[in-house]
Amino acid sequence: MEQKLFIYNTLSRRKELFEPLHAPNVGMYVCGPTVYGDPHLGHARPAITFDLLFRYLKHLGYKVRYVRNITDVGHLEHDADDGDDKIAKKARLEQLEPMEVAQYYTNRYHAAMDALNVLPPSIEPHATGHIIEQEELVKQIMDNGFAYESNGSIYFDIAKFNEKHHYGVLSGRNLDDIINASRQLDGVGEKRNQADFALWKKAQPEHIMRWPSPWSDGFPGWHCECTAMGRKYLGSHFDIHGGGLDLVFPHHECEIAQAVASQGDQMVKYWMHNNMITINGQKMGKSLGNFITLEQFFTGEHESLDKAYSPMTIRFFILSAHYRGTVDFSNEALQASEKGLEKLMNGIAALKRIKPSAECDGQTKKTVEALRRKCYDAMNDDLATPQVISHLFEACGVINRLVDHKASICEDCLKELTETMRLFTFDILGLRDDRSGSSDEREKAYGKVVDMVLDLRAKAKAAKDWTTSDRIRDELAAAGFEVKDTKDGATWTLNK
Fold it and tell me: Is 109 exposed, middle or buried (0-12, 13-18, 19+ CB in 10 A)?
């Protein structure tokens, strides 16, 4: 079945048919974390969103090179020019080398991503390992006349760029509005225009992280690393650049300007952005101090949390909303996700206990035959995961009726139902059954024992030993196993 995937392109502001530049190869770059603190829920959303896309593109048969960077230079965020170097500041506070801080929190980030079942990217470049490439980018922009030196720092000349190109093409802003909205900042006197952004900053004497350059000992501007590393690993033109919606301006806008200023045209065909996670309507983030770390979610050790939530509950919570919609944190929403995940995992586990009949009833056949197509249609419509989950829940209803012998299913349809449920739940949505060991392990452990006991009960019934038969049923019920007698024999369900 050939699939046509449509994705929303922030650049064109519409859904577009995904047509890779060099099919079947796909190049995808996603902005990764700045590693100066523990990963929080706001980090989980882009990681899970683009993990979903990575999984789905691979499922569709594409050969994906997925690049997600690690920002281990404490760049100056927001305006990218002034403020504290976050990693260096953390290093001073903890009396560590900056690279110790970066490595420690990189390890913490990886551990959290593993817990969330986020696949590792194909390449994970570090900003500090690509200073030469960033300096080369700055030289190209200067040689083309779109940057200038001031007191050892290099700034991008937005007004000069805008004479030939459009600064604001991604965010929809015009230059006058950008200039008027720019704040008066320390060091603005170095710039021709207060909206100009730094490509290279001369390091102050106390600045720990610095590198030699033709202009000064200093460090690259925040926006340079992604342009330089994207070009190095994916080429001068690639398919997808992703990140959080808060990166559209200024970060991704500046990336586009840098690419055009250095090579004459844009690098990226599709720009994709996930929306924010909010707490009481405000964006969650380290800089705002309103974040909850992923470890705190997993342990429940935060005043805003009623309890601990498993990594798969967090993943399900994020996938329950469309990636372009906002998600507001609440314990109620997380507990609803916990129940939804349990429902889905119970449904998939129950499939192993269903015995096929000679033929399907009409409603079951109709639901099973449509399930795969409906899930694909939802995924192909800009990764509409809430609809996928809704279709899987509908299938869980069919599974429950089959377990209760209120419906029948043939062998071929049971195989199709099982394969579709597992494909979209585990392979594409990336969920896992983490409940005290895998479902397979529990089924094997319980199944052998319970089936043996039920066989003894069947022999007791055949001998009309109703006392023993009823006692076995009651003892199993007391242990949490519900036994149902049918015309085809006894079945059992483990009650949660």
Answer: buried
